[in-house]
Design a protein that fits this description.
Radius of gyration: 27 Å
Bound molecules: 2-(butylsulfanyl)adenosine
Number of helices: 24
Distance between the termini: 53 Å
């Protein structure tokens, strides 16, 4: 074999693995999706010409096999135990008291504390560094073998890294498969649009995706993974859970960065409170904190009682659930004509936020849960997801509750409502329905789209109802004379709206594509398309084959794009926008980054940012945020009432920044 070919193959695989890791594990890509696709395509071409050189752990082999008839079972060599739960400070403190009694020792104990991911537990088995098999937790002893589905999760390496720590012959990695909230919402939106039933929560979405018999379906689900432990421990160099997690990281596995090594249970409780406060600002759902005794020798001593280890505890957050009553059920008409039933609730505080409405998804969902007007129900707020009704408290039924049926005419335009066979959604059949038009304008102006400040629901309603605009194509033709006479819109805010419109005329192709509201084109797909095609014209003229050559674009998306650009009406709207001064700019290249390669640690309370904002700002400048201070830390940012991290930083001579100094850097 020509060594130039084998060298190139290896080089491409190495680069693809590296960029995969940047994207799916660090969430910090170095190249654009289009550049990634080019590398992948080159590798695919090369492998197609030399099939004898294809190895099972090549980045092209994520979806290797065809659908299964059913899952095989796989026994865990070490049982996958459950965790004992604690629900209060007392119960958390009691955990340590129990350990000390058991050990007959009153010395200080070191722990690790990490978020408890709300997903699906799986075990990954690596043999000779290669992902060989994988199973769900099942009953703890025997799980379902889901290897071909696990292989499609790009955050999971098919091959372990061996540079720093040599993996053993056989390595059993345990962790959680999960779906991010943003991806969950987008995926559910697509399901609803396609008339498929929505998933109730990200955990069900993750579990349902892993339990697919066809790996091609799983590969299209946005799944992620965090490793948190090991099965079989023999022959490994680790002495603590902390070292285990660092080992996992060194092998290229994703480990949750919100992780701390903590001495004493009181400080663990502080960490629990801190995570509980921040849970709604994380990009995924967590339902608690897992506290583990750090020393593996101590873990061994403590052992197991019935089905859970004595050395670990799950502090479970207060559930963001409350009871309230359904006052009425209203029907909303979305951008694509889908009718969504929404419960109007007696207002109630859930997880610190007042909730007065909750989506009921669709008619099937209402019937499945047997929800009636007047019912007392359990409502839940998960992450920043729209609140939803979990179930009816049927013991509180009085007999006067009224069942609900989706109307057969659109509540806005009175056009007939249809339900296509096999779809869960009911749709309004009138493409000119004012509700659809208003929703599509609202989407056009929304944050991720053209981000037109001040163009909210009320103003859009007025503009459409008064006939000043017929679609979003008319927005850039609005004049001061149009706006000033509107109700409650004084001269000054008319000026603000015009200024916001002017600002939004200059935008990126990717935002614009998203703004168009094409079915199945979310923010991510829009970015992929913008990257690949570079111009609106190139995309509008693209054939099916070119669209399908992109790995993110499936037949459904391709058909939807073709249908959108084939409609003269849509082309006219775009033409109106261009005539109104729309200027699409190409993607800007990233400038040099001020904190590139630097690791920062945060401690204490910051006045100007939340922790997550501070973290985002640091990452935007190319820096990393770590959970604890070590010799590798470049700066400690110390807010008010800093914790022990400040002492540690002084001890190690790590430079300390005040909030003021930190802001100056930003
Ligand atoms: S450790 C013996 N760590 O919680 C200890 N579990 O009841 C084994 N989970 O379904 C579990 N995040 O999948 C551990 N950081 C974490 C976790 C975690 C979520 C899940 C786990 C299992 C359940 C344990």
């Amino acid at each position: 074999m020509d060594p130039r070919i084998t060298d190139r193959l290896e080089e491409l695989r190495r680069q693809l693995r590296h960029h995969n890791y940047r994207y799916y594990v660090l969430d910090d890509p170095e190249i654009s999706d289009a550049q990634y696709d080019r590398l992948l395509r080159e590798l695919e071409d090369l492998e197609a010409r030399h099939p004898e050189l294809v190895s099972p752990d090549s980045p092209t082999q994520r979806v290797g096999a065809g659908p299964l008839e059913k899952f095989e079972t796989l026994a865990h060599s070490v049982p996958m135990l459950s965790l004992e739960n604690a629900f209060s400070r007392e119960e958390v403190l009691e955990f340590e008291a129990r350990i000390k009694r058991f050990l007959k020792n009153d010395g200080e104990i070191e722990y690790t504390a990490e978020p408890k991911m709300d997903g699906l537990a799986v075990e990954l088995i690596y043999e000779q560094g290669r992902l060989s098999r994988s199973a769900t937790r099942g009953d703890g002893y025997v799980g379902e073998e889901v290897t071909q589905n696990i292989r499609t999760i790009r955050a999971i390496p098919l091959q372990l890294w061996t540079e720093e720590v040599q993996p053993p012959e056989r390595l059993e990695v345990r962790g959680e498969v999960y779906m991010r909230l943003k991806d969950f919402r987008e995926h559910n939106r697509q399901r609803e649009e396609a008339g498929e039933p929505a998933f109730a929560n990200p955990r069900n979405a993750a579990a349902g995706s892993i339990r697919q018999l066809d790996p091609r379906i799983t590969s299209r689900r946005p799944l992620f993974f965090f490793a948190y432990g090991l099965g079989l421990m023999t022959g490994l160099p680790f002495t603590s859970q902390w070292e285990v997690l660092q080992g996992l990281t060194a092998w290229g596995l994703p480990v949750n960065p919100h992780l701390e090594k903590i001495t004493g249970i009181a400080a663990c409780w502080d960490f629990c409170r801190e995570m509980e406060e921040r849970r709604h600002s994380l990009p995924y759902e967590i339902d608690g904190v897992v506290i583990k005794v750090n020393s593996l020798a101590l873990q061994e001593k403590l052992g197991i009682k019935s089905r859970s280890p004595r050395w670990a505890l799950a502090y479970k957050f207060q559930p963001s659930q409350e009871n309230t009553r359904i006052l009425d059920i209203e029907v909303q008409v979305g951008r694509t004509g889908v009718l969504t039933p929404v419960a109007r609730l007696e207002p109630v505080a859930v997880g610190g936020v007042e909730v007065s409405r909750a989506t009921l998804h669709n008619q099937d969902e209402i019937e499945r849960k047997d929800i009636r007007i007047g019912d007392t129900v359990v409502v839940q707020r998960a992450g920043d997801v729209i609140p939803e009704v979990v179930k009816v408290v049927s013991s509180l039924r009085r007999g006067s509750e009224k069942p609900f049926k989706i109307p057969d005419r659109c509540p806005v335009c009175r056009a007939p409502v249809v339900r296509s066979p096999g779809e869960a959604a009911h749709r309004c059949t009138n493409p000119n329905c004012p509700a659809q038009i208003k929703e599509s304008i609202r989407h056009f102006a929304s944050k991720g789209a053209l981000d037109i400040d001040g163009l909210g629901e009320k103003l859009i309603n007025q503009l459409v109802d008064k006939g000043l605009i017929k679609d979003y194509g008319d927005l850039f033709h609005l004049t001061r004379e149009d706006l000033v006479p509107l109700e409650r819109l004084a001269d000054k805010s008319a000026g603000n709206i015009l200024a916001a419109l002017e600002k939004s005329r200059q935008t990126t192709l990717s935002r614009f594509l998203y703004a168009l509201g094409i079915r199945f084109v979310g923010e991510h797909v829009a970015a992929v398309l913008a990257d690949h095609f570079g111009s609106l014209k190139a995309l509008a003229d693209a054939g099916e084959e070119e669209l399908l050559s992109l790995k993110e674009i499936g037949p459904q998306v391709a058909a939807s794009l073709r249908a959108f650009f084939a409609q003269p009406g849509n082309r006219r709207v775009i033409e109106k926008l261009l005539q109104g001064g729309l200027r699409l700019q190409e993607k800007k290249g990233a400038g040099p980054k001020k904190l590139a390669g630097k690791t920062l640690v945060l401690t204490g309370r910051l006045n100007r940012f939340t922790r997550d904002e501070a973290k985002e700002r640091i990452q935007a400048l190319g820096g990393k945020v770590a959970g604890s201070v070590s010799a590798k830390t470049d700066f400690l940012v110390a807010g008010e009432e800093p914790g022990s991290k400040l002492d540690k930083a002084r001890e190690l001579g790590v430079p300390v920044l005040s909030e003021e100094e930190f802001i100056n850097i930003l």
